[in-house]
Design brief:
It is a single chain. This protein is mainly alpha-helical and 129 residues long. The chain has a domain of 80 residues. Helix content is 60%, strand content 0%. α1 runs antiparallel to α2 and α1 packs antiparallel against α4. The termini are far apart.
Length: 129
């Protein structure tokens, strides 16, 4: 099955530039951890701390308004944040994170990063009074 790619002309895929930066950083950190975890290798504590910090920064910036459309960059970022929060919760409770979950994190990161690599940015809308 072929993945949908973001359309530069589609306003529904809009992503704020600061969200794109957060997504790129979260993608790099989560992918590095997923490469280790997906093969059953231990993720170093320093990498966990960085992942926690970046996930919290992304959640703070995005909040709970993650977007709703299938072709929405905010929705893609929100899904990656939520999955990172879930693996962090497993880690903090001492539970093992299954390789399948790590692979899902890696897939979500790649899918979400497609919005950044495609150069999709937010169209500014007029402020209402």
């Amino acid at each position: 099955m072929k993945r949908a790619q973001p359309d530069r002309d589609d306003a529904r895929v809009a992503m704020q530039p600061e969200h794109a930066r957060l997504l790129a950083d979260l993608y790099i950190l989560s992918s590095a951890a997923a490469q280790l975890g997906g093969y059953g290798l231990e993720v170093p504590n320093s990498q966990w701390r960085a992942l926690v910090q970046q996930t919290q920064a992304a959640r703070t910036a995005v909040g709970t308004n993650e977007g709703t459309g299938a072709n929405d960059g905010r929705a893609a970022l929100g899904q990656l944040i939520t999955m990172c929060e879930e693996i962090i919760k497993l880690y903090t409770t001492g539970e093992r994170c299954a390789p399948a979950i790590w692979r899902e994190v890696e897939r979500l990161g790649r899918d979400a990063y497609a919005y950044v690599s495609a150069g999709v940015t937010c169209r500014r809308e007029p402020l209402s009074d």
